[in-house]
Specification:
By secondary structure, the protein is mostly helical. The protein has 19 helices and no strands. It holds the Pfam family DUF445.
Length: 457
Amino acid sequence: MWGIAERVEQMERTETGTDRDRETAPGDSAVAPTHRTMTAFTPADEERQRGVRRMKLTATGLLLCVAVVYVLARWGSHGEAGTWTAYVAAAAEAGMVGALADWFAVTALFRHPLGLPIPHTAIIPTKKDQLGISLGEFVGENFLSQDVVRQRLRAVGIGSRLGAWLAEPEHADRVTAELATALRGALTVLRDSDVQAVVGEAITRRANAQEIAPGIGKMLEKVVADGGHKRVVDLVVARAHDWLVLHDEQVMDAVQGGAPGWTPRFVDKKVGERVYKELLRFVTEMRDMPSHPARGALDRFLGDFASDLQSDTDTRARVERLKGEVLGRGEVQDLIASAWTAVRSMIVSAAEDERSELRLRVRAALLSLGARMATEPKVQDKVDSWVEGAAVHVVTTYRKEITSLITDTVAGWDAEHTTRKIEAHIGRDLQFIRINGTVVGSLAGLLIYTVSRALGA
């Protein structure tokens, strides 16, 4: 009996090996396969397949055992063995029917039973694409729905968990280091010329798009009203006084050089000395007298200029022209470019230094954020809402792409190889159906025969 079962199993293995040989036959190398295969059989798959074969032997052996019992029971019923043989024969007959029916059902999942093209058999290889579509729809409806995503994420409690994780100093240090590495990498990848061009163009466009004269006028008006310009005047007048004291000869020579040629030299000298003394006196008085008339005149001039900057059309137009000329100069563009270079270098240096103010502030901010997320329900709810919103947006926007990944992947699998792969994973459990069918069929047949005899009696 077991020899027959082994022979049947050997025939099945031979048929499977023949199919595998046909898949990899050298003569087929000229024809490109139309489907991608699943991942090649691993040692674990081979072990599963051996387990399936053992269970097939067991199920087939049980079927043959029931068949032998049936034959012996029927033979005994014609002799003088007793009426009990009829009960055994009925149970064995029903067990064979159950075993054969379940064998047909299990086999029909993977191939045509006995090689006959019976309708609705070889379900997995023939309905593989439909199964992939159904699987994609099942995942989309039951795993990628908005309610399911929100419910699962809310149950996880990402805000509180992330907060507790960030509140640990070593984790904050790790995140800070990763952020610093990412920042250095991003700044290294960026080309200075490109960034400088973008920054320069952005600053120039923004400056050209916005009139600056009214803003300057308001600022100057505020400065004059607060007396902030007086310190500048004090500084200028003090420096002018010191300069005149140190350069008296140059000032007098300049005055004498501008005198007519027909005037006597001593007159020119007297005039130069007189002009120098008056100029020095004027600057000294202006320096020492906060209420000097010249200071008042300067205040009125600045106030009028501030008003003109805000309301006078000609003054505003002249400022705009001056602004355009200044921005158009190469020196200004070079200054903008050099500013980016300096900023980039400063950021890179700060990111590399573990004790820099930038990294210390980022670390402190992460620790503070983690503590708040771990203890404050409002912050946790806000973080959870952000995460849920982002996940729902991804799911609702790209659900079709996600499910199509499943259906397209299944559609790209080779049917025969896929069947063998699936059978290796679930075939062993399916063989228990055959065993259970044999046992349950026998018990059902025995019960039915017993009831029939009882009613007939």
